[in-house]
Amino acid sequence: MPGGAPLGDLGPVIEVRELSKRYGTTTAVRALSFTVRPGHVTGFLGPNGAGKTTTLRMLLGLNTPTAGTATIDGRDFGAVDRGLRHVGALLDAQDVHGGRTARAHLSAVAASNGIPRGRVRDVLDEVGLADVAGRRIGGFSLGMKQRLGIAGALLGDPPVLIFDEPLNGLDPEGVQWLRALLRRLAAEGRTVFVSSHQMSEMELCAEQLIVIGRGELIAAESLTEFAARGTRQGVRVRARAAERLARALRAEGAEVLSGEEALTVTGMDAERIGDLALLYEVALAELTPLTASLEQAFMELTADSVDYATTPRTGEETR
Amino acid sequence: MTTTLPAATARTGVVAAPARFRHLLAAEWIKFWSLRSTYWVLGVGALTVVGINANSARSNADRLSEQAAQPPDGLGPDPAFAFDAMHTAFLDPAWQILMIVACSVGAIAVFGEYTSGLVRTTFTAVPDRRGVILAKVAVVGAVTTAVGVVVAGASFGLTQAWLRDHGGVSIADSGALRAVAASALLAPLSALIGMAIGAVVRHAAGSIVGAIVTLLLLPALFQGETYRWVAEIGNAMPLSAWEALTGTHWGPGKYPVSVTEAWVVFGAWALGAALTAVEAVRRRDV
User: Fold this and answer.
1) For residue A238, how many C-alpha atoms fall within 13 Å in the half-sphere facing its CB?
2) Which of A60, A108, A189 sits opposite B124 (nearest CB)?
3) How far apart are the first and last CA of chain A?
4) Quick check: B34 and A111 CB within 8 A?
5) For residue range B195-232, what is the model confidence (pLDDT) as tens digits?
6) Which residues, listed in sequence order, are joined to residue A45 by a DSSP beta bridge?
7) ipTM beyond 0.95?
8) Cβ contact (<8 Å) for B6 and A11?
9) Is residue B150 part of a domain?
10) Which domain of life is it from (chain B) (predicted)?
């Protein structure tokens, strides 16, 4: 994928500056600042209750910030007359009236922005709901509602797309479809901002990450940079003469953990280990660089900001 | 506002259109008629009201025919108990049902957005909340006005036709047109009040309870005439104004409502309700 796509500088930018939201004594979002640029998918990550949805609602003018600003393309979105041609958003797939058919729902949304009816059929086709367009939404599965919400976001063919946990409820085929769609939209030069509480969901489609916890910014960087934060990187080494090799590696400055089957070496890359093995005439059975998964990096980073962590039972229920 | 649209626009044919109020009207129109409950509530409600009034006219016509067949018993008719044919078209309970029906339709149109969460989808598509709620007011107001006209016209026409031999009046008779008009407008007035309550309460059961309290219980509570302020509050209720306009108030009392005052009450409630709905929707987080 072309990183930072050629259209990058032309597309609209999402800008959040010192954004805060308090509900009574609880602070949902605290002095949050970040920028989302066009041309790639930007993941918005954080554990449950981190303030992702609140941030997105303020961005879309649904909630008023206690302090700070959130703008899309330099404007406060709440002050825009009609939204669909500027921003397509899916906040919650359940934000529909179950009594209407998919077609009636989309027709009303399209009509409000003066978008022709034909476009409703197009987006229903695009998300694969054409066959159930005449059915009432109340009978839809969560995955179908997600598709309907995505259809609604696409109605105005907007340069900015904002999705809150869009992969929830999608089947594996749906997940693949949506990832491809997100990547395509970004490659077309649009600004694509997608929230999730699962790193693994973002791993395959996001290039940039905004990570928050307890309403505060933890990281705003590329996926590659984020991955490099993984602290448990090392190399797994198996050899018959493991002890001799371990001594040699330690002598060269590596840290070596001796396991039952293999050594875990940190502080030295696989190439250097291979060279040393040759030098010390140790035959290697395995030499595997271990990369800490993004999942681990995410868990480590947000460990301090998880609101609803499970704790081991200690006789007393924690709740 | 449309200058930042990317080249994508040409690809899908979604061309920029200026923000027009009629687009919002179209959207609210689709929303209104795409729910089955709309047809049920309006249909059953209208039939019930017309049915109650027509049935009263029929039974009165039967009774009066029997009385006329009997020889007079020597006592002259007491003018205080004289039969008022027009009254049968404007029976209090029937029109109170219409008030509740119309009020529910208005309330559902607003709280339905909040309870379902649809309101977030709506306001993301149209951040101009005032426009959305005004379009809703226009659509719900127009439909309930139409329903009010049909119900009032049918009630008046059917009852007076049935009672044509017993003093049935024509629309041209004194006060008849005013009574029909006030009854027709009672529907959109109640619907507006329902929308305001729905916008403030945002909850299904709470909105309906609020509607019944406002439209029916408050006027009943402020019926006393011991204190003038109590009577005046009662007089300022939509139901009392409607009774004054249809000439069906239980009696002139110490502090009667004039026709002009009654129309002012109608107008003030309609305006107040619309403003309340707009402000409640505009100000709060969704």
Assistant:
1) 6
2) A60
3) 45
4) no
5) 999 999 999 999 999 999 999 999 888 888 888 888 88
6) A196, A211
7) no
8) yes
9) yes
10) Bacteria
